[in-house]
């Protein structure tokens, strides 16, 4: 979830600069260390909801604004992971015969059928 830390940091930096506030001033107003503010803005450190609330209060904005567009980042990240997995499967199957590819599809189909059956039993 590195992408989320970076997006939150970008949002904090954006609103801080929009308000014309220096990192040191934001740190003082939110009762946080300036280095910590810098690390958050650069996506190097994650922060708690309590810390986000302090920063939002110091910036005089709703906490939700700092969290804006996070859902888009999460969806994009998941899509990249899915695409990577599919690409790995494709690379494994590239040099296989049609018969081997069909056998793999049947194996996957049967495996997933067993997974679904076991989930229904629980």
Structure description:
With 122 residues, this protein is an all-alpha fold. The protein has helices at 2-18, 23-30, 34-41, 49-59, 63-66, 70-93, 98-121. The longest helix has 24 residues, at 70-93.
Features of the shown structure:
single chain, 122 residues, mainly alpha, 7 helices, elongated
What is the topology?
Layout: H1 2-18, H2 23-30, H3 34-41, H4 49-59, H5 63-66, H6 70-93, H7 98-121
Helix pairs in contact: 1-6, 2-3, 2-4
Q: How many extended strands?
A: 0
Oligomer: single chain
Sheet/helix structural class:
mainly alpha
Terminal CA distance reads 30 Å
Name the overall outline.
Answer: elongated
Short overview:
This protein has 122 residues and is mainly alpha-helical.
């Amino acid at each position: 979830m590195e992408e989320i830390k970076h997006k939150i940091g970008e949002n904090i930096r954006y609103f801080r600069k929009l308000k014309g506030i220096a990192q040191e001033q934001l740190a003082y107003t939110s009762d946080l260390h300036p280095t910590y503010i810098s690390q958050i803005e650069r996506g190097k450190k994650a922060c708690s909801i309590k810390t986000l609330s302090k920063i939002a209060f110091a910036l005089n904005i709703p906490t939700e604004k700092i969290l804006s567009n996070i859902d888009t980042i999460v969806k994009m990240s998941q899509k990249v992971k899915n695409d990577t997995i599919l690409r790995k499967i494709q690379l494994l199957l590239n040099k296989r015969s049609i018969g081997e590819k069909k056998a793999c599809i049947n194996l996957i189909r049967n495996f997933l059928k067993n997974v679904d059956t076991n989930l229904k039993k629980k």
